[in-house]
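Write out the 3D structure for:
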Amino acid sequence: MSWSDRDKQVWQSIKSWKEGLYEYEANDLEHTYVKWLDYAFESIPQDVQEQFFQRLDGWLFHMHSLIQGSQMQNDARERILVTARAFNQDIETIEDLQYLTIDQLHYIAEQHAGRHRIYSLFQGGFTGTGGLVALGSDLPAMAVINLRSVQLIAITYGFDVQTPFEMMTALKVFHASTLPSRLRALAWEDLMEDLNKKDSNYFYDGSEQLTDYTWLEGPMKQAFKALAITMFKGKKWSGLPLVSIAVGAGANYQLSRKITDFAEKYYQYRYLRLKKNQ
């Protein structure tokens, strides 16, 4: 199956985006933060760190499995297939989606990604009200929203996340997309290494470790967001803490946008690479 001119354009845009990952340079504030983080974790025994991150990985695996097996996700899979049949009535399975053009797939993926960015916006606005329940539910709610969006983008490009390889890959894509900018190029290389050495389209035989202390920068930013919300929640207009609502909504929307953009670049790369080799 040969590439179209549009395929070549998208491939070039992915290449340029990937170069941007490698060209990113951390600023002085980030360097200072990294040194502080390294120092903080040096004082924690290694076995305690390992137990903590193993449990965090287990929580992500469990949440990923629950989302994947939910009726809501099954309904979304069917909606993707129904939309795809509007372009090609012969579409029957998730794998058949790869017969669509990249623009058709982007249209379907953007429908779901855009919807989940809106979910994040509203979740952030709810968090911005400053209530204890709202603040406490923000991190797990954002994990659910964004894990689900990564799964749906994978499905849209014809990669069924119900297989072990694609399930693990979707988790690693989510993890990579939430890393600090200075670490995303290394995470991309790790994803490419998994692709290059895989012997099966079904089984996964790479490393199953996801999180370490470098990943905690994202959750810590969420904690700083919560602090900002708490500071501004007393400033109300017409009875609403508009500043804290705007902080929560804006931060959550930007996070979801970063995650969905990374995920779509990865799965577009997979789609084009597969199409080129057929």
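The chain has a mean pLDDT of 86.
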